[in-house]
Amino acid sequence: MTARTVLITGGNRGIGYSMAEEFLAAGHRVAVTARSGSGPEGALTVHADVTDPSTIDQAFTVVEDKLGPVEVVVANAGITRDTLLMRMSDDDFTEVVDTNLTGAFRVVKRASKGFLRQRFGRIILVSSVVGLYGGAGQANYAASKAGLVGLARSITRELGARGITANVIAPGFIETDMTAELPAEQQAAYKKAIPAGRFATSQEVARVAVWLAGDDAGYISGAVIPVDGGLGMGH
Questions:
Q1: Which one of 20, 23, 37, 220 counts the least CB within 10 Å of its CB?
Q2: Active site residues
Q3: Mind listing the pLDDT tens digit for each residue in 79-88?
């Protein structure tokens, strides 16, 4: 695998942190953005807030100066504001969309400047099974995650001839501190709905990202790759 310069947003915890670890293990130069905290040892951590374009531009500038031109970007940063539709405020909706969808757009737009010069780039957008499967109390989150599919496919049609790919990873339920705190009966109910009968590890999601960034995935673009144990069945 060709070593690349990789930038992962929200790489200070969860899936983003695991992605940084896996990219490092594969021999890549890795930077992560974070509003607080830091990425794993060996990764360059830069401050950025995906709702603030100026911090995104500054983060890219730092990474380009220290690690070289960004060749792979993973838009992973995201938030939730779960509540039922009738209780959801405008702010609940717009804040989630601004972070999860518009934030990804801002990051990809900044990355594309270098990608076009290089005639190479790998764009990986982290969605969710909820984006196409739906989720009660998650109209804002589902809408933001579904929007990433349209974003990736439009980028593919626009930039695909320039050596740039754009793909979506759609994780299902992941083993995290949050899922571990769920009551045992609720965990069992979720697992019963998953054909694989278990939650995924964050490493299983991260390894898909590393593969999509690699040489073997150069002819894959506009795809949605579920990592959900069969929960979404390709939706």
A1: 37
A2: 141
A3: 999 999 999 9
102 burial type by CB count under 10 A (0-12 exposed, 13-18 middle, 19+ buried): middle
- pLDDT tens for residues 163-186? 999 999 999 999 987 677 778 888
- Which residues fall within 8 angstroms of residue 162, CB to CB, at 6 or more apart? 115, 116, 119, 121
Cα separation, 170 vs 1, whole angstroms: 24
Q: Note the pTM of the prediction, 2 decimals.
A: 0.96
Measure the N-to-C terminal CA separation of the chain; round to a whole number of Å: 31
Task: Please give the sequence-ordered ranges of beta strands (E in DSSP) within the chain, or none if there are none.
Answer: 5-8, 29-34, 44-47, 72-75, 121-126, 164-171, 224-227
**Can you give the residue ranges of every domain in the chain?**
5-173+202-224
Dmax of the chain from CA atoms? Answer: 53
Torsion of CA 92, 202, 126, 32, to 10 degrees: 90
Cα-based angle 120, 122, 128 (whole degrees, multiple of 5):
165
Reply yes or no on whether the pLDDT at 42 is more than 90: yes
Q: Report the sign of the C-alpha dihedral through residues 35, 36, 41, 44, in that order.
A: positive
